[in-house]
Design goal:
Blueprint (H helix, E strand, L loop, with lengths): L6 E4 L3 H12 L6 E4 L15 H4 L17 E3 L3 E5 L4 E4 L4 E3 L2 E4 L3 E3 L16 H13 L3 E4 L3 H12 L4 E5 L5 H18 L2 E5 L5 E3 L5 E3 L5 E3 L2 E4 L3 E3 L10 E2 L2 E4 L10 E3 L4 E3 L13 H15 L12 E6 L2 E6 L10 E5 L4 E7 L5 E6 L5 H11 L8 E3 L10
Parallel strand pairs: 1-2, 1-7, 2-3, 7-19, 9-10, 9-15, 10-11, 18-20, 23-26
Antiparallel strand pairs: 4-5, 5-6, 8-16, 12-13, 13-14, 17-18, 21-22, 22-25, 23-24, 24-25
Helix pairs in contact: 1-6
């Protein structure tokens, strides 16, 4: 395959900027253009719910630079695409052509507010984080809707400031992702730090205009100074309407990050991995996956084989002052196969083995280099599922996060 003369990347996201850098790393010397909608430019999102909520100085440490790479940037949102004509139209009326297109528009926060209802707070962008940080400074009480990674990080930020916070979800904290074993431990730890949990029987509705509380299906109403929706994300695919490239899950890709259209690839939170006879469709909107897919999409756009896997199952969160690092498939079902250390004391190394022969390793409050955690996951897959051992070895000296 002849390398394309020009590559257009729509989305100045982590996946998009990673793809741009990797194109140059792979030796592509042709035109590369990024269409980005945010005036802030490209920045890293994981610190928004951690460092940025704590410290205004963190705002200036997030940038993802493309300096020196001769990358053109168009600061206007993409509003339409015509993949058969190989053009993308921007909000300011420009029509940009390409030989290869990489879709990397990411996702928006899922919102629960009724049409016209004002004041809903979410956390997806730097502006969102700044707005929430300002509100945290004056809040006496808080409600967080959603007990996933983001919801628990926001609740932890509230608790750190001494703000009584209630987390509302239809399931226990992180249960759908980390399973009952770790969910129980995280719930107990968070509750000890003042985080209250309410398990609803169905979807909560925002109340007030501006928003000042939530109504639960059983008739319970909760109010607070601060209400934050952390109910997942919605892939940014409106601009692809009518193209056949996207559906409700996002843009479907294969292991090479190729879509069903020739010359069109996709990476990051906007995507899902198309299923086949042995696996279902799968979304993985995480930082590490965006990086892996960005590199894969860049190689595929140039007609080159990927230099590594297109999926990277590495996750990291911080809940109630405790770091949780994970390598491997989620969710975690049942009891762990091995436990080293003490989950109750917040210092443990755990593994789960899956029916497909792979394994997931978790550093729960343990300082474990990511390379070591990857090795543990890779070498634990042959363990017999359900066989559980427990020791109390201290963390290795000199380990890094």
């Amino acid at each position: 395959m002849t390398a394309p003369r020009s590559v257009l990347i729509v989305g100045e996201s982590l996946a998009g900027t990673t793809a741009a850098r990797h194109l140059r790393t792979l030796g592509h010397t042709g035109p590369v253009t990024i269409i980005g909608a945010e005036e802030e430019g490209a920045y890293s999102r994981p610190p928004l719910s951690k460092a940025v909520l704590k410290d205004p100085a963190a705002d200036h440490t997030l940038g993802l630079s493309l300096g020196g790479l001769d990358i053109g940037v168009i600061r206007s949102a993409a509003v339409a695409a015509e993949p058969r004509r190989r053009t993308v139209t921007t909000a300011d009326g420009r029509q940009v052509g390409y030989d290869a297109l990489i879709v990397a528009t990411g996702a928006n926060a899922r919102r629960l507010a009724a049409p016209g209802q004002r004041g809903e707070l979410v956390l997806r962008t730097l502006d969102d984080a700044r707005r929430l940080r300002t509100r945290l400074a004056d809040a006496a009480t808080a409600i967080v809707i959603g007990a996933g990674f983001l919801g628990m990080e926001v609740a932890s930020a509230c608790a750190t400031r001494g703000i009584p916070v209630t987390v509302v979800d239809t399931d226990r904290p992180l249960h759908r992702i980390l399973g009952g074993h770790l969910s129980a431990a995280i719930t107990a730890r968070a509750a000890a730090q003042g985080i209250r949990f309410v398990q609803a029987t169905g979807f909560a509705a925002l109340t007030g205009d501006p928003v000042s509380g939530v109504a639960l299906p059983d008739g319970t109403e909760l109010t607070a100074d601060l209400v934050v929706t952390c109910a997942g994300e919605v892939p940014c695919v409106d601009w692809l309407a009518g193209t056949g490239l996207a559906d409700r899950l996002g843009v479907g890709v294969d292991d090479a990050c190729a879509t069903t259209f020739p010359g069109v690839f996709a990476a990051g939170d906007v995507t899902y991995l198309r299923g086949n006879a042995t696996r279902p469709h799968r979304r993985a909107p995480f930082w590490s996956n965006a990086v892996a897919q960005g590199k894969t999409a860049a190689a595929s756009a140039l007609g080159l084989p990927p230099s590594g896997p297109s999926q990277d199952d590495y996750f990291w969160t911080e809940v109630a002052g405790l770091s949780v690092k994970i390598v491997g498939h989620l969710p975690l079902l049942g009891e762990p196969a091995t436990v080293e250390g003490s989950v109750a004391e917040g210092r443990a190394l755990l593994t789960w083995t899956h029916t497909d022969g792979t394994a997931t390793a978790v550093a729960y409050g343990r300082r474990k280099p990511i390379t070591a955690l990857r090795h543990l996951a890779a070498t634990s897959g042959s363990s017999t599922p359900g066989v559980r051992s427990e020791t109390n070895h201290p963390a290795s000296a000199g380990s890094s996060p």
